[in-house]
Each structure stands twice: as C-alpha cells, then as structure tokens.
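Side project, low priority. Logging it here so it doesn't get lost.
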Amino acid sequence: MRQSKLDSLEVSKTLGQWSAILCSIVASYIGVAAVVLRLGLADPWILCALLAVGISWLILNGPVLLQRLKLQDKPSLHWGACFLTFVILLGVIFACRYGGMVAGVSCAILGLICFAINLSREIRQNATRTMQALVICGILSGIACAGLSWGRGFLSPVFDQGLARGIAYKDTLFHMSISNMIRTHDTSSTGLDGVPQLPYHWGSHLALGALADGISATALQAYNLIFPVVFVPLFLHSLLLAGIACGGRRCKISHEQLSGRIIGLWALVMVATIGFLPSPIGNEVGLRPSFMISESMAVAIILSALGIGVIFPRFSKRSLFASESKGNTPDEIWLAAICFPVFAGALGAAKISLLIICGALVFFVILRTPSIWKRPLAIVSLVVTFLTALVILRYCYGSADGAMQIDPFHYLKEWVSGIHRPFFFPVTLAWLALAFYLRLREMQVNSWRRFLVCLRSRRMIDLELLAVAAGVGYAVSMTIPIAGGSGVYFHNAQQWIAVVIVLGVVMRRRSLLQTRQSTAGDSWLRLLTRPFGDSTVVARIATALAIVFVVNVSIDNFRIAKKLSQARFVPASPSSPRPGSSSGEPGTDSEKQALVEAFAHILTMTTREQKKNTALWIPKSNRVFWDYLGESPHALATPFLAPALTGIAMVDGAPDPHPTIEWKDYGYLQYNIYGEQRPQLEARELEVHVENLARRQGFKRILKIADVQDGVLVSELQLEETTPLLATGHCLVSADRIQMIADQRSRQLEIKQR
C-alpha cells in the first residue's frame, strides 16, 4: 500500500502535518532553552514558557487537524492549510486580547491536544525514520533559531537582568512601550507625555501584547519569550506551507519519497533563514536578517507567505474572482472577496513596506487581467481593499521628518561598506536568480520564442510578480532615505517570495528533472547538480552549507553566552557617594536595580483599569532614571523604560534637548522637544504644573518616582476621588536591599561555576 502513489491533496496534507510537528519541536526547544537559561533567577518564566509553547502548538497543529477532520476531499480555498493558519492566528490573537488569561490557557490546552493527536497519528503509522529525522531537524532548527532570536543584540532570555545593570537596546524598549500603551490605552503611542497617537505599524505590538494578556505576561516577557516561541517557529512553518501549497497541486509520489521531500524543503528554508554567508560577512555586504531584527517584519513575512500559499497556486488555472463555471464555488468567491481586504489590513498594520509592495503586485495583476473589471464582486472587493489600505496608511505611517526626500543609492552608501558594494546586488538577488533559473528550466524555456510564449500565456505569473516586487523594493530602498537602515525591509521582501517559488519547484522536482529522453534520479539534491553534470558537487555544496550553518549558529549562540556573562556573572558594582547628592553615584548597579524593582512593584499592584487612569511622573532631578543608559545612542531609549516596564503612561516624560542627540526618530516628533521650553519652577510649583498637565490628559492619579538617600521613593498624588494604590501614600524600595540580593546571586553563581 505504501508503494502506491498518493494524490496531490494527500501529499500536501502529510507534508503540512510533518512541518507542523517539526516546528512544534522548534517551539518546544526554544521554550525549554529560555527556562534553562533563567535557572537560578527569581522568576525562571516556567509558566509563561509552558503557555507560550501551548499556544504555538495550537497555531501550528490546529489547521492540520482541521484538514484531517473535514469530510470534503476536494481542494478548496477555505480548507487550505495556509488559509486555516491565517484564520487561527488571528483568532488566537483576538481571543487572548479580549478573553485574557482564560482564553490563553484554553488555547494552550487545545494546542497540547492538537499536537498530541498529530504526533500519535504519525507514531501509529510506524514512520520511525521520518520521526527521527523530524526530531533531529527540529532540534537543529531550534538551536539555530534560538541563536538568531537572542544572539543579535535585540532580545535576550535574561533581558531583565541586563536591564538592571543598564544593558538594553533602544529598539526593544521602544517597541515594548508601544505594545504596553496598546494594552493599556488601546492606542499606538510611546506614552512619554500622555498617549498621543503615533503613526506606526502596530500590528506586531498588538499581537504580542494580546498573547501577553492571554498568558498574564509582561511586555518584557512578550518580546523576549513569546516572540521566539510563537512567531519564529510559525515563520518557518508558513514558508514551508506556502512552498507545499505552490508545489503540491501536481505532485503525486509514494509515501516513502515524502521523507526526503520534507527534509529537502526544510534544508532550503534553513539556508534562507540562517543565510548562505557567515553572518559577519553577510552583515558587511548588506544581507541583514531583517525578520529577526524587526518583530513586525517577521509577522509581515508570515502573513505574506500564507497569502502567497493561498493565491499563487490558483493563478495558473483561474482567478480568485472567476465565475463558478471556471472552477470556483460560490462560497470560495465570496470568501475571497471578504478576506482580501482583511488580509490587506492585517499586512499593513504589521509592516507598511510589505503593504506597499503587495499593493504594487495587486496593481500589476489588474493590468495583466483586464477581464477582472467584468466581475462586479471583484471590483467591490478591490475598492474596499483600497479604502482599507488608505485607512491603514493614515494611522500606521508617519515620515520621520515630515517630508520625503530623494537620494540615489542612499542605502548602499550608508549601510554597505565601500569594499563590499559590488557584491550587494548579486548577493541580495541570489534567491531571485535561483527562482528564475529553476522555473525557466521547469518550463523548458530554452529560447526567447519559448520565453515569450510562456509570458503571453501567463504561465510565468509568479516570476512576473517576483520581478515587480524586486523592482519596487529596490526603487524605494535605493532612492528614499529611510532612518535606521529600514530600506532593508523593502529590498529584501523579494527574497521570501523567491524562497516560496523555489520550494514549490522542489515540491515538483520530478517534473523539473524530467527530460524528453529520460527521468533523472529521485534525490532532491540532483536539483543542484544538474547544471554541473557531476554528482560529487552534491557533497561539496552540502559541506559548504553545513559549514556556514555551523559558523552562523556558533556565532549567534556565542553572543548569547556573552550576554549571559554580562547580565548574570558580573558582580554588582558598589555604591559610591558623589558630591552634592543624597544617594550613590547615578548609574551604580544597586540604584538601577532599585529603580527596576520599583517599576516591577508598580506593575504587580496595578490592574489594567488602574493603569489607564494613572500617570507616572519622574522628575528630572531623578538622575538615576534620566542617566540610566548614559549618553550613548541608546540614551534615546531611556524615557521608554517607564512605560515599557510598567504599562503606565508618563506625564512630563519627554526628555530635555541634548546637543549630541537628535530627537527625531522613535516617535519623538509627537512631543515637540525643541518647542516651548519647560518652565523653571520651584518644587511645589512644578508639582502643581504636572498635576494640571495630568488632569488635562484625563488621568486621575500620579505616581511620582523620586531618587532618595535610601533608594527609590514612590509616592501617590490623587487628582480625583479614587481608591489609593499605596496604603500610606508612598513606598520605599531600598538600594541596600537590592545590593544584598545582588551579592547573594553573585555568590550563588560563583558556587555553581565551581
């Protein structure tokens, strides 16, 4: 029975199930690694990790289980793995957002059930070798993804420990503050002085904040734990699902051949994820891992891959809005019309760059399909999608300096070293070139006449869309100066479309390797040796990619070890008195830990409703806070510490102008730092001024955080008749107590090391 050919639908279901199991192992590994790396700390995040892994299992395994349970065996849009994954992802996010921890725990339990059912089904089929391969690949992927997540300088499983010593990256605190303001005030803002609306793509912040609500986690845990556990495995899974969907419609092979197929797909995805160059060289050339630098980019690529998996397989035969006589059922037509604006809205909220590129692709499809204007439903759907995109741009996009400039090759001049600029385009277009080569070979295009025939017949629509995405992405990134090197989010979007196309070709590799005279062997690696005609090239290419894989994973995990040593194994510096101050020198570890402890105390004693009515006021005299990250470029993030760690907006929290810092990016334009000067008032007058400011912004109480002799003093100022948060009106977090705790931890770690 196993020797018989499986139909294309069964092939897609089986490979999708294996992909879900593989990526579930990745999620489990990252969750376990986070807990192990935090052993010995006060909170090892065990419960949060368990719930995050359970939610990840639900998103990965739920669609596969639904596909297995459905009665209809005919391929359809709304029973495809990509579409179901998109729906379940949105469903889990909104369930956790409005259902809280009850919904989060329920999703985690459902995830455990789904994973257990899928795993037991594979074990019953006695697929021992396949399961062994999936476990090995899952562990290798987990090691690599943990290194990517925590080794790039943005996230860390001991982020809180490093933060207590003044070690933090500005981007992470900025995004945490936005996520917290969405959780508390339902608006995109950094919360430095009230909650003015920040035009920024807030989709990933909403998603992470919602999942954090579902498992009762903080924003710090959401970014450093939930993102690697939930979204990184889903990133791999979405690419695999899209490739399976694009290549599985004409794929009929035996069950034994499926094992090699999933390993081949996994290897290609890992090469695309890790990179085919050692990371130091890749960074110099401009091959930046944008999906790990930006959580919003990772979420946008997930949505884009799932969208490609739904749409691309249907382009070659029929349009999504074709009539029933063309092969679409009425429910598919209406579902496509409804979901298209929803997908555009979700993608735009996640990442504006991907929305712009996908908009260009839609415009190109309209040009290539003039008959679309004969279908009223398609016109209505496109109009609604266009209006949705306009609304998203209105609330999610804001230029840093208010004006769009033109600077040819700005990204190349600013972010790629001169010696490596000649290699930039060949390296960043490598996947595009591979996709074109494989698809043209698959279609047996060996002449310009054959090429034009395929072009006119729309058999190359996927390559046409890939070329449009690359052209638009490079046009924007190479002509418009975008702060922080964000042009990378435009020019490398084409890479992930190309990866999906390559995966689809590998899925159909028998047709790829088939010639008029004979059929090549079944090994997927022959795909790489075909141009050379020498099978020994397989070993050389595989060895080279393995070396790069080991190098990159080693580098990233070495960075994790370095972070751990900085955050945990360095003894706290003693407090030393400074002239003219009532406390130790600003920036000493004990004082910073006292401040972080005060933020943690405020976080635990306030509910969401109380946070919404409360403002934090940290006077400029509290130099422990305002000098927390020194005068490095990361000082931009210092004001974000309070909203990022407490979820409470500040009042009078905009920083003073600084001669070496340009307060333009990171949403600072909302606060007009260089506008009217702050009044120079006495202590009581300043307090009255801040109270009036808070009243105008709708707050009912103020928590004042002051730097005093014994540590950090938190006092409460009531603006209206409300229930006090502090029983005595104030509380003290002692620096001496924090120093004692730090000394105890240092001694415990020394004993463990011995």
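Brief comment: Residues 277 and 699 are 52 Å apart (CA to CA).
Revisit when time allows.
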